[in-house]
């Protein structure tokens, strides 16, 4: 869908800028109609590096149906993500990409509406529900991981199935059952449609598949809502169905379904990507794999693992380093609601702007030898003095990822269960090629072998 169509469908949005409004920003508009979409999707990091080398850290680019200005580096991240002056709209930034697929998702809300819905959603991430999730995740991960021993598996595929099952257990309170495969495919179709070069849901297009997938998922959630409203379930979906806004009114069935659609996608697709990159890096860095295994071995086997996760400090550093090297959301779009100045350029209201997370995470001035896996970058000593917006895999400001602690908890549990059972090995070339957008995934599925550890 084009920006013009979306602007007509969303009359509160600022009108689209005439193309000439950004002529003073250096850049490259690419080919007619598709712009630089194919160049960007083929090699996002290389594309950004080439653009910066030619035009500088503020440049104009046309891709995915619109023209935007990229602002790269920690200062740009702070300006846009922290958004002290409420200059930037997340709704109007993500809208041209996601409005047909995840309308009314938390990312597609601004300011007071975002605050109110985030407050309602936050009930799912309070201490008591998180303890419940930890117990469910621990049992689910242990059961799945037990079946991986002595096998070579496409890790992305098996962990995607696992994380969807875990998201269903945590948020829906029930296994997905017979519909699991169809639900998983629906999320795949939605996410892939978000970067389809054809932005209208014409027959035969990826966008059409994505729109149909959303309709199926919304129907799936709406069918469950009446029973959840009247029940006493403690899972997130049930609590959300019974929740009321600041005026005491329940949320509409469509609002609940759209939030669940977005939350379930985020709770398994981004974690799938993060888990895959971390496992790949541990397979490629056996010294670090051994260090994490030794850390896990210090835990007290007489106590529940879920009560000792905070002791897995090196494991958390390794997770943070994998998020630095391959963030699950490579860039973040926003739209300027009023004019601003950055990097020596006056940028008008209505301009689509982008935050380059992957680019910032590989800036050598903040991350020496940026292609080297080094979890010790995240010790308090190494982090001291580093720009606070040099590492932003979870975003920042009011839109900081609501599920970041859930993701960290799940990753600690997964790594603890893997490393107490197996040595992770991968053949040369495994995971070398990745599709980076919309959410990174290895093109080969990352074949790895889980070699059972010798027991005495």
Structure description:
With 456 residues, the protein is an alpha+beta fold. Helix 9 (180-193) packs across helix 10 (206-230). It is built from 17 helices and 13 strands. The protein has a six-stranded mixed sheet, with helices on both faces. The longest helix has 32 residues, at 253-284. The chain has helices spanning 3-9, 37-42, 44-55, 74-82, 90-98, 111-121, 127-145, 155-172, 180-193, 206-230, 236-242, 253-284, 286-297, 313-325, 357-361, 380-383, 404-421, and strands at residues 27-28, 58-63, 66-71, 88-89, 152-154, 331-336, 340-342, 345-347, 352-356, 422-425, 434-435, 441-442, 447-452. It has a single domain, classed as Orthogonal Bundle (Cytochrome p450). Strand 11 and strand 12 (441-442) form a beta hairpin. Helices cover 48% and strands 11% of the residues. Mean pLDDT is 90; it is low at 1-8. The radius of gyration is 22 Å and the shape is globular.
């Amino acid at each position: 869908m084009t920006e013009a169509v979306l602007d007509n469908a969303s009359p509160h949005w600022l009108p689209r800028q005439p193309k000439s409004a950004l002529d003073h920003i250096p850049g490259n508009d690419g080919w007619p109609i598709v712009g630089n979409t194919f160049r960007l999707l083929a090699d996002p990091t290389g594309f950004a590096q080439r653009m910066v080398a030619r035009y500088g850290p503020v440049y104009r680019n046309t891709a995915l149906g619109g023209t935007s200005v990229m602002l790269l580096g920690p200062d740009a991240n702070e300006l846009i993500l922290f958004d002290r002056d409420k200059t930037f709209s997340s709704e109007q930034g993500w809208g041209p990409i996601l409005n047909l697929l995840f309308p009314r998702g938390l990312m597609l809300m601004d300011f007071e509406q975002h605050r109110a819905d985030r407050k309602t959603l936050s009930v799912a991430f309070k201490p008591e529900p998180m303890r419940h999730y930890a117990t469910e995740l621990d049992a689910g991960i242990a059961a799945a991981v037990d079946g991986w021993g002595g096998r070579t598996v496409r890790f992305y595929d098996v962990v995607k199935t696992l994380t969807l099952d875990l998201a269903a257990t945590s948020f829906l309170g029930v296994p997905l059952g017979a519909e699991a495969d169809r639900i998983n495919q629906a999320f795949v179709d939605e996410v892939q449609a978000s970067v389809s070069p054809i932005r209208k849901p014409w027959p035969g297009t990826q966008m059409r598949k994505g729109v149909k997938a959303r309709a199926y998922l919304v129907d799936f959630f709406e069918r469950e809502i009446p029973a959840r409203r009247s029940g006493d379930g403690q899972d997130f979906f049930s609590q959300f169905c019974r929740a009321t806004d600041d005026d005491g009114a329940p949320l509409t069935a469509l609002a609940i379904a759209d939030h669940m659609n977005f939350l379930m996608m985020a709770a398994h697709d981004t974690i799938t990507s993060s888990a895959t990159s971390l496992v790949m890096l541990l397979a490629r860095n056996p010294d670090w794999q051994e260090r994490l295994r030794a850390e896990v071995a210090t835990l007290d086997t007489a106590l529940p693992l879920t009560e000792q996760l905070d002791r897995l400090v090196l494991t958390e550093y390794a997770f943070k380093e994998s998020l630095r090297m391959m963030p699950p959301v490579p860039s973040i779009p926003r739209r300027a609601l009023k004019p601003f100045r950055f990097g020596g350029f006056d940028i008008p209201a209505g301009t689509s702007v982008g935050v380059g997370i992957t680019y910032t995470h590989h800036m050598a001035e903040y991350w020496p030898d940026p292609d080297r896996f080094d979890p010790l970058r995240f010790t308090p000593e190494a982090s001291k003095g580093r720009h606070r917006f040099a590492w932003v895999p979870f975003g920042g400001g009011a839109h900081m990822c609501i599920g970041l602690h859930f993701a960290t908890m799940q990753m600690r549990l997964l790594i603890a269960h893997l490393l107490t059972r197996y040595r992770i090995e991968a053949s040369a070339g495994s995971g070398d090629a990745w599709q980076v957008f919309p959410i990174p995934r290895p093109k080969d599925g990352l074949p790895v072998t889980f070699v059972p550890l010798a027991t005495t």
